[in-house]
From TrEMBL:
It is an enzyme of class 5 (isomerase). Residues 8-98 form the Chorismate mutase domain. Keywords: Isomerase. This is chorismate mutase. InterPro entries: Chorismate_II_sf, Chorismate_mutase-related, CM_dom_sf, CM_II_prokaryot, Isochorismate_pyruvate-lyase. It comes from the Bacteria. Its EC number is 5.4.99.5.
Amino acid sequence: MSADFKSPEDCASMSEVREGVDATDRQIVELLDRRFGYMRAAARIKPTREAVRDEDRKANVIDAAVKDAGARGLPADVVADIWERLVEGSIAYEFEIWDRIRK
């Protein structure tokens, strides 16, 4: 893990846990920034507005996250809920960008 915070297994106090959670949250936001960058790229590349929503792709993305969560011993139902929201939010964002760049 990073020198800025301890691994969960090495935490001995709630202060250390909170430092790790806060650092992890910052990393998650950084990854979301990258993910939404890909949504901007998709909006730029997709030739039609109808191409923005792809239900098969959505299902595959959520299924992959749930399988990965299960393999890691994480609560698959929670991950499914998070990814449903993430993917729907990404689609909404991509629609917004698609419309904006084609005005």
